[in-house]
Amino acid sequence: MRGDAEAAGVLRPRTPAEAVRLFQKHKDALPIAGGTDLMVAWNAGGLAGRTFLDVSSLRAWSGIRQAKHALILGSLATHTELQRHPLVLRRFPLLAQACATVGGVQIQNRGTIGGNVANASPAGDTFPPLAVYAATVALVSAGGPRQVPLLEFFTGPKRTCLAPGELVESVRIPLPARPPQRAIFRKVGTRAAQAISKTVAAGLLWLKRDGTVEELRFALGSMAPTVRRLRSAEAFVQGRRLTPAVVREAVALVSDDVAPIDDVRSTAEYRLAVSRNLLLRFLSEPR
Amino acid sequence: MRTRFTVNGKARSFSGSGMKRLLDVLREDLELPGTKEGCGEGECGACTVLLDGQAVVSCLIPIAQVAGRRVATVESLGRPDRLGTLQEAFLAEGAAQCGICTPGMLMTAAAYLRRGGRADDGAIRRELAGNLCRCTGYQHIVSAVQKAARRGSAGRPRKRA
Fold first, then answer.
1. Taking the CA atoms of chain B, what radius of gyration do you get in angstroms?
2. Which of A70, A165, B17, B86 could form a disulfide with B155 if both were Cys (CB 3.0 to 4.6 A apart)?
3. Which residues from A are below 8 Å from B48, CB to CB?
């Protein structure tokens, strides 16, 4: 049965400063925002006896705002807000698309971007877009603030570099100097909604006037313990024309940067084949 | 811990642990059993209610997070002797069979219609994707929501004559 509600304590800070102070004092407390993952564990009885730090009332951490060189997603911004926000839609459309594939509308209305990254699922659908957009995670604790690149924030499945007493304040995405010529987001799951990805991809491609690759960024989720950028393939195509031979070689390099597994949702072989096909199609696509 | 909020327009309060699920507070403490529990893990949508107008699954919400907010349950859509347009459309289209998913379907559809959602098949299917039904095959449910959308009722109960 679920955890004993009578015995559970809920701390409800009103300001970020109070949240940090409370978390410093109660280091074993579990932060809760939208609760879309944590409450599943609670209902299953896995968190009995724990104290919860409810950050959902921290107004300062809600909303999406533009700073000089970055878009700042407050950690409490929901998947629904992200997929409708005009700046996200215009500058970071892959993130909006990813948010529309997470759970169903009920989950999108509650699930937050801060909770999503702190939860660190290997299958997190927002992570490949955030990885190719070079997002950083802004953290805060009694020791002060710090910023960590998204790819360093994740240290393993459901594991992050969050220190005891540290909370996710926002996710920051630098505004690109110029828009890419090609962009892709693709989630491959059993059905369109409420499915956990077998593989999930995001890609950005900038080409030079002469048709050679200026920069490729391509990230895959559900293909390793954490989201991965395809560094080998990215480096290989840089400065080259995307001829069939070059594309073929890049696609072969996918396995350098991922380590898919067999599990209840799929097989390693299928995951790798589909991921290679997604890169193949993205690079082969005529403008 | 005392939590105050409104349910279907009335001020309510709950005294007890802030981790009790909104679903259980509605059914056990406020005697509103219209909201059903399906999976209890946020996958099926049966327990959908509106929180400040947005469709949410009440099995994943600790009551502490409802403080100061507005909840609407299926009981707000109409009464047995005066059904809302959305409920009437479900009846007319045969959109319910065993009935467990129905309150959640109605509330997700109500949120969609109140936001100005149209009788568009694809949009309705996307919106209802978080609500599972084992009986109907969904077509009747989509037809019912389309019917209510065409009537422009926004899922509210009909006004008294």
1. 15
2. B86
3. 106
